[in-house]
Amino acid sequence: MTSLPAAAGADRLLLRAAGHARAWTALVGAAALADAAAAVLLPFALARAIDAVPPGGAPAAAALWPCAALVAAAAAAEVLSELATGCTAARATAWLRHTLVRHLLAAGPAPRLPPGDVAGRMVGGAAEAGVAPAAATEAAAALLPAAGALAALYLIDWRTAAAIAVAVPAVALLMRAFVRDITASAHRYLTVQGTIAGRLAEALVGARTIAAAGTADREAARILRPLPGLRAEGEAMWRVQGGIAARGLLALLLLQVAAVGVAGAELAAGRITPGELVATVQYAGLAAGFGPVLTQLLRLGRARAGARRAAEVLAWPAPTYGTGDAPPGPGRLEFRGVAVAGAPGLDLTVPGGRAVAVVGRSGSGASALAALAGRIADPDRGEVLLDGTPLPRLGRAALRREIGYAFARPALFGATVRDAIAFGPSRPPDARLREAARAARADGFVRRLPDGYGTPLAEAPLSGGELQRLGLARAFAHAGRVLVLDDATSSLDTVTELQITDALLDRFADRTRLIVAHRASTAARADLVVWLDGGRVRRTAPHEVLWADPDYRAVFGGTA
Predict the structure, then answer these.
(1) Is 402 strand, coil or helix?
(2) Which of 135, 217, 273, 497: disulfide with 299, CB 3.0–4.6 Å?
(3) Residue 72 C-beta-side C-alpha neighbours within 13 Å
C-alpha cells in the first residue's frame, strides 16, 4: 500500500509538472470539452432527425446537417486532443527530468541508489509521470458525457434516468479502487525494474573484472534474478485492469438492457417518440460507458507510481548556499568539532599558504576530511570555515572558485581533452590550460595524441596515470586559494609524482594545499603532516618529527 506522505509528495510533484505545461494542458481540456459536448449533443440531433421524417416519407435532409457537423467537430477535437496530449506530456516530462538532474547533482556525490535505478527513474519513471496532466484532464472530461447523458435522459424520461443513476455510485467506487490498486502495482513494477537496471549498471562498470573472473553466466543470473517478480507485477497490473474492464463492460450491458426495457415501455405508452428511444439507447451507453475514464485512470495510476519514485529522489537533502563572496585571506581552513557518520568530533586548523599532508590508515577519515574541506559533503555536526567564514555562507560560485579538487579516479567531461582540462566554474585561457598541463606532467602525452589538445575524449586512450594527470591539470587550471588533492597521485610512478609535487610546492606556493597522501615521500615534502587515527587528529607535526614514532611509520608500511 502506498504510504500517505509518499503519495502526497508524488501528487504535489505532478501538480508542479502540470503547472509547467499549463498552456498545453488547457488546450487538452478545451479539446476534451468540445469532444464531450459533441458526444452529448449528437444523440439529441439524431433523435430530431428521426422524428422529423414522417412515416413512409422521404428523409429530411435539413435535419441531418447538425448530425454531420457534430461528427466533424468531434473528429477535429480528437485530432487536436492527440496533439495537445503529446505536447503536454513532453513539457511535463522535460521539466521533471531537468528537476531530477539538477537535484541529483546538487545533492552531492553520496549515492543512495544504484546508478542504473536512478537513471531508470529519470528516463522511464519521468516519462510515466509526464502523462499525468493530460491524463487527469482527460479523465475529468471523460466524466462529462456521462453527466450530460444522465441530464438528457432526465429531460427525455425521468424513469429511464433513474434506472441508470442507481448504478453510478457503484461505478465510482469501482474506479476509486482501480486507481489505488493500479498505482500500488505500478510502483512495485517500476521498483523491480529499477533493481534490474541497477544490477546491470554495476555489471557494465565491472565488465573487465567479470570477464577476467569468468563469472559472466553467474552475473547474468544475478542481474535477471528479479525477472520473475517483474513478470508477476506486470501480470498483477493486467489482472487489475482486466478485472475492472470486465466488470465495467458487464455493468454497461446490464444498464443498456435496463434502459432499452424502460424506454420501450415508455414508447409503448406513448410518453416518448421513436427518435427519443434511439437517443435513450445512446445516452444509456454514454452514461454507463466508463471505458475512456478507466483508460485515463490507468495512465494516471502509472503516472503517480513514476512520480512517487521521482519524489523519493527529490526528498534527498541537497545543500543550500549563501550569497556571500569569500573574504580576503591566505586560505586558512578551520574544522571545528566536525563529525561524519557518527565519528568523533575533529578540530583542526590548516594554515593558509602551506602544504599540509593528511595521512592515516584506511578508514581513518582522510578522504572524508578532504570532502569537508570544499563542502563536497557537509558534516553531521560542527562547521568548516575558510578564512573565518563558514562555508555554507559562501555562494556556490565563490566556493568552487576558491577551493579546487583533484581525485584518485577523476571523471573527465567535455568533447575534447582541452575541454576536459577547462571543465570548471569558468573557462581559463588556452595558455593557462597548457601551463596547467605542463605542471601536471600531462602536456607531453597530450601533444602525442592525434589532434593534441583537440583530440576527442572518446578517441584518447588513457592509462590510469594519464587520467590522474589530466585531473591534476584541471585542478591546477582552476586553482583558487585552496587546492585539495584526494590521493590524486596514487597511480603515478615515483619520478612523475616527485615532479608534480615539485610543481605543487613551487608554482602554487601561495595557495593552501591539502594533500591526502599514502606515500611517505609525499608526506615528507609537505610543510606539515596531519596524522589521523580513527577519525581523530592523533598528532600534527612535520614528517621528520613524526617519523620517530613507530606507529606513524606503520601507516606507510614502515618504509621511508
Answers:
(1) helix
(2) 135
(3) 6
Choose among 313, 121, 110, 114: nearest CA to 205.
114
Measured distance CA(289)–CA(157) in Å, rounded:
20
Residue 127: which residues within 8 A CB-CB, separation 6 or more? 89, 93, 306
- Residue pair 540/359 in contact (Cβ under 8 Å)? The answer is no
What cell does 288 get?
454507463
- What residue has cell string 593528511? 358
For 278-321, the pLDDT digits (tens) are 787 777 777 766 667 777 877 888 888 888 888 888 888 888 88
* Amino acid letter, residue 553: R
Distance in angstroms (rounded) separating the CA atoms of residues 495 and 456? 28
Q: Which residue has the cell 435522459?
A: 153
Residues sharing a CB contact under 8 Å with residue 499, sequence separation 6 or more, in sequence order: 441
For residues 142 and 287, the answer to whether their CB atoms sit within 8 Å is no
The single-letter code of the amino acid at 234 is G
Q: pLDDT of 208-218, one tens digit each? A: 788 878 888 88
What is the rounded CA–CA span in Å between residue 399 and residue 403?
6
Residue 531 Cα distances to 31, 86, 341, angstroms: 70, 60, 20
Count H helices and E strands in the chain, helices first. Answer: 23, 10
Burial class (CB in 10 A: 0-12, 13-18, 19+), 190: buried
Q: Where are the alpha helices (DSSP H) in 315-408?
A: 366-373, 396-402
Question: What contacts 403, CB < 8 A, 6 or more positions away?
Answer: 373, 374, 375, 386, 480, 481, 482, 484
The model's pTM: 0.74
